[in-house]
Here is the input.
Amino acid sequence: MSMDLSISRHWRLRSPLYRLEGARCKACGRVHFPPKKACPYCGSRELEPVELPKRGRLISYTIVYAVPEGAREYSPVYVGLVDLGVTKVVAELTDVTDTSKLKRGLEVEAVLRRTRVDGEAGLIYYALKFRPSMGVPDV
Amino acid sequence: MPGPRAGIHGWGAYIPAYRLPLSEIAKVWGWHPEQYKGLAVEEKSVAGPDEDSTTMGYEAARNAIARAQVKPSDIQSVFFGTESKPYAVKPSATIIAQALGITPYTMASDLEFACRAASEGMRALSGMAASGLIKYGLVIGSDTAQANPGDVLEFTASSGAAAFVIGPEKGAAAIIEDSVTFVTDTPDFWRRAQEPYPLHGEGFTGEPAYFYHIEGAVKALFERTGLKPSDFKYAVFHQPNGKFPVKVGQDLGFTMDQVKDGLVTPMIGNTYNASALMGLARVLDRARPGDRILVAPFGSGAGSDAYSIVVTDTIESKKTLAPTVDQYLARKVVVDYSFYSKSRGIILTIK
Amino acid sequence: MTSFIEGVGMVKVERHYEKGLFDLAAEAAFSAIDQAGGASGIDYIIASNALGEVQDEQLDLGGYLASELGLRGVRSLRVEAGEASGLAALAIANSLIESNMADRVLVVGVEKVTEFQSAKVYRHLQMLFNSNSRSFYNAGFAADAGLLTRVYLDTYDVDRELLSYWPALMHSNAKENPYAMLNFALKPDKVSKSQVMADPVTLLDTFPLGDGAAALVLSSKDSVNNPLAKVSAIESATGLGSMELSDDPLTIDSLTEAYRRLQNVTSFESVDVIELHDSFTIMGILTLETLGLAPKGKAPELIANGAFSINGRGPVVNPSGGLKARGHPIGATGVYQAAEVALQVAGRFPGLQVRGAKRGLAISMNGLGSNSYVALIEGVE
Here is the structure.
């Protein structure tokens, strides 16, 4: 019997993974995600949590066929670099039913999906992924 | 109904993008078209590989909370009604509550009563809100419905979610005038604890189960309220296929006109806990102030609820605050049996 | 202050199922030690390795390596900086010599990447990126290169086919190198047609998975007998290593800074040879452009027209075949690069020799540049 996915690592990061919580630097004003303990731009420790907007635009995307262990059922894995205005994030894309729609500028929105599952009996990791926008509201 | 009442402040739904034509299922398992045409369903919705009842419930709930125009932290109870829990033990309700910013000061639990678990949750919330125990509560019905591959149930067992924010009568988009529940021990359909798929009694799921309990609940509602079919603009029933809700409606004295807008099963199959409730969501997407709606969910095992819901002026401002059921219906891509079997995990693989 | 490379050893990069970590390390280390005239006087072993824990269940590789090499008691440490581990180890070794803490240091880079199925190794390699950003997803190790390549093609309006000249050049160079994993020629038009790793990055844009080990003996001025080359300077810098944090992902920030630091410490006008970090085609392209060896957006065109090749304009880039064709045993790669440049400036490289090479650079980085190292290695008279 073994557990390959850590409980605490995912649990600690629920706010970034479930709600896109990042950090805003009070010294220089820049926002980054996921949140660090000091601003990666100016080095200041004066940070405050900030929830990022859940809608943005694709800057780039890729279609991954060299999927890591445990991801075969999700292959190909779509990954996007998303511009949320205040900062950018890299996240998996989902519900990509028409690859011709994948292009720079596509409006995408964050929704909760499974990302990793630990076998038959282990933990299920959930995280936000981005999909072509349907207008789902932010709450 | 005497005493304080509760109302629906927000509603929402979610349907996955993928649709499996019933003809695909028939091809694989050797069914003749006449054997499933009678179900009056064209395609069924299929959850994608990264979806489950929790993720679907999350999105339906997000839509409901947006329409309710409340802060997630004002929600003090979350009921998740399902028969396809990703964890037998570990509530989906807390995952959704955490993800939506509702935690920590809230009740939360997953309920089971086949397809009517969420409806039981709605009744419980209306009592809790009406009594002032809570200000707002969230009920979600969500299922990735299971069926033994090759069984006739496979044609209709589909995926979807519906959610409602229940609160005080004041400010509600629709008021729950009255409601009643009618249950007996009737084993028409069940799933044993470690089993992946349910068994059912075929014809036994009809008269002794679906029809008996829905009629029992609705007639009890008519009796206590003095309402009759012509008082209702809409009648929404649990819809395991496209025929049963029409028949039970007819038997109870409703017309096709009253039933049709609450029917989603013909397009996407039976979403179990989201079945009648998604029909209700679709009706709320288009209902007018003053419209009275009958809703009668049913769950195997067995039991039914009957609600009389009256729409208020507040509804108009809320309709466009989230995607409608029709928007989810329109977002579709047709898939084949192989996508469905991989997506729903019915191919034997080493994990 | 300079340190001297006295002996080098390399193992052919390959799927060495029959050789474990210590077997590979010994093969390379004994070669280097023998070439340097013996092990006497070795004060330190600096080992570089990135995946020893997860591939081979081994911690304190440095400590155990000492006894495994017959050097029980010698001071030892394993250095890890992801893909940049090898040059990081060289930097530590060089510092020990510069600070008079050691007279002779054995630097050994070793890596096994074939102990598990490739899908598991892809999960391991995902660790080269920020764990909080990536470990909860299934992007794998090539997704960032895929995203970056697409940004490059969009920004400069370059055709994907033009990028393919890079792997073709790498293969052409590697054909001569007996230590290279991929010894076959490659036509550019094959690259875009090969297996997609992370669109538009294909298998032929990507380093192959192979085991390896490389070693060198680094000596102080006073201890050295017969140097091959000298390490004139080595510098490094950390960077954001992330497309989402960077304002200009097409410039490798840590490389810009490491190179600037190198230029503060030493002066030089041009180098004859560069072994650089082309883990993916795009990283090779961006390295040239970040260093100003090619104008932004123009490196692919220059490569296609023969620049940086053995007969072309500019320093010869990756005569070994680079990470693409010589191979990339992750933590060991930097030591290969240092050994190769040392042999080039000594006129003794067993593959494609850059005639009259006197000054060379070895450039290594992790991921998209969380850490970058640049070493200037020069010939001795």
